[in-house]
Amino acid sequence: MSKKIFARNTIIIVLIVILAVGILPNYLHIGDPMYFIVIPVAAWFGVSKNNWLLNFLSMILGMIIGFILLEMFNLL
Q: How far apart, in whole angstroms, are the C-alpha atoms of residue 12 and residue 56?
């Protein structure tokens, strides 16, 4: 069960990173996209009832995968 939750949380973080860093600043002309990452991630982990360590690890892995994908597709 926790593997599915971990994978779901990681995929959600990856999508938030890609939207916040790669796509939204180009269309909304915002200089600092960090608020688009921090606010949704904090809200998501505030609502979830998972273990804090599981949330933290999925956040780190999601950020790493998100930035790797952004670099691969030249969205940075």
A: 13
Give the model confidence (pLDDT) of 7-48 as tens digits: 888 888 888 888 888 887 778 777 777 777 888 888 888 888
Is 13 exposed, middle or buried (CB count within 10 Å of its CB: 0-12, 13-18, 19+)? buried
Kindly state the DSSP code that residue 45 receives in the 8-state scheme: H
Cα–Cα distance for residue pair 74/3, rounded to 1 Å: 30
Q: Which two tokens stand for residue 55?
A: 């949330």
Q: What is the dihedral of CA 26, 59, 41, 36, to 10 degrees?
A: -20
51 φ/ψ angles, rounded to the nearest 5 degrees: -65, 145
Domain ranges of the chain: 2-72
Q: Give the Å distances, CA to CA, from 36 to 3, 11, 53.
A: 26, 16, 23
